Amino acid sequence: MTTPALMALRKNYPKAHISVLARPWVEPVFSGNPAVDEVISCGSTGRNSSIFEKMVLARSLKNKKFDLALLFPNSFESALIAWLARIPRRVGYATDARRMILTLPVSVPEDRRNRHEIFYYLNLVDHISRLSFNTRSKNEEVSKGRAGLFLEVPAQGESGAGRILNQMELDQGALLIGFNPGAAYGPAKCWPVERFVSLGKALVGRFKDCHVLVFGTNKEVSVAGDICDPLGEKGHNLAGRTSLAEAMGLISRLDLLVTNDSGLMHVGAALGVPLVAIFGSTDSVTTGPWSTNTVIVRHDLPCSPCLKRSCPTDFRCLLGIEVEEVLQACLQQLKAVYGLKLEI
C-alpha cells in the first residue's frame, strides 16, 4: 500500500535516487517499480533483533550518505536505525515514542480511521514537499484522487509461475480460482477452513474446467491440504511451495481470487485480478483492497471492526458469513468480468 506514495515521491523528485529498505521476502514488491532505483535487503530490524544487528545495518546505510529517510513503518526501531545511520532528515509519524529522534515528526491525521491506508503514506510525501518547497505536493490528482497501486511481476515470478502451472498439466483455458485462507495478523481475519472447502466444492461442481489454487505460507500447508484434499485433482496445494515473486506470477493469471484480508489480497488488487475479499475483525475502509474490481463480503456488527487478532466472544463477524453468500459474490465477479452465462 506504499506504492502510491513512492510514485508520488518520484513525481515530486524526478532526479532523486530513491532506495527502499525491505525484508528479503518482500523485495519483489518493489524491484520492478519505476519509482525505485534500488532495493536494499535487510534482515530483522524489529524489537527481536539485537543492537549489533541494528548497528551493522545503520553503518551500511550511513555509508550510502542518504539525505533523507522517509519512514513508512510506525515503529521506534525504524526511526532508531535512521538516527543511528546519521541520516540528516528523518520524516515519519510521531508514534511509538520516537518524536525526539525524528527531524520532522508528523502528527497522525485525525481522519486516519475514515480513509484508506494509502492516504496515510501519501500524507508523509506531502509533508516532505512542505519541508522542501513550503508548498503542498505537486501531485494533487494522486493525493486527492484515486491513487493507483503499482505492482509488476518480476521475470523470475513469471517463469516460476509458468513452470508450476506446467507441472499441474492443466488444460488450456482452465478456469483458475485462487483461495487465500490465511492471514498473518491472526485468526480473527480468517474465514473458517470448512467453508472454503464447501465453496471449492460448489465452484468445481459448477464449472467442469475449474481448478482451485490454494496459497499460503509454510505454516499453512496443513490448512491448504484440508481444503484441497476434498477437491481431488481440482485442488492444488501451493502453500509453502512458492516464493512471493512466483505467487505474484500465479495470482496475475487467476480468473478470480477469494481471500481473507491479507498481503496477497493487496497483491491481487494491485495486479487488477477480480477479487472476493472476506472481512472479519479488520476495517475494509482503511485496509480493504484498493481496486474497483472487488466485491467485499462483510457483516456490519456493533463490535466490528474490533481490530483484534483473536475474537474474545463468538466470532460472529466471520461465522455469520455463509458459503452461499461468498459463492454468489464469486459468480457476480465471474459474470461481470468474463461474461460467463451464470444464474445468480
Architecture overview:
The chain is α/β, with parallel strands linked by helices and 344 residues long. It folds into two domains: 3-144, Glycogen Phosphorylase B (Rossmann fold, 3-Layer(aba) Sandwich), CATH 3.40.50.2000; 155-338, 3-Layer(aba) Sandwich (Rossmann fold). The protein is built from 14 helices and eleven strands. It has helices at residues 3-12, 27-31, 51-63, 76-84, 117-133, 140-144, 155-168, 193-206, 221-228, 244-252, 263-270, 284-287, 316-319, 323-338, and strands at 19-22, 38-41, 68-71, 89-93, 104-106, 175-180, 210-214, 235-237, 256-260, 275-278, 294-297. The radius of gyration is 21 Å and the shape is globular. The model is unreliable at 138-145 (pLDDT under 50).
Detail the topology: elements first, then pairings.
Layout: H1 3-12, E1 19-22, H2 27-31, E2 38-41, H3 51-63, E3 68-71, H4 76-84, E4 89-93, E5 104-106, H5 117-133, H6 140-144, H7 155-168, E6 175-180, H8 193-206, E7 210-214, H9 221-228, E8 235-237, H10 244-252, E9 256-260, H11 263-270, E10 275-278, H12 284-287, E11 294-297, H13 316-319, H14 323-338
Parallel strand pairs: 1-2, 3-4, 4-5, 6-7, 6-9, 7-8, 9-10, 10-11
Task: Provide keyphrases for this structure.
single chain, 344 residues, alpha/beta, Rossmann fold, 2 domains, three-stranded parallel beta sheet, 14 helices
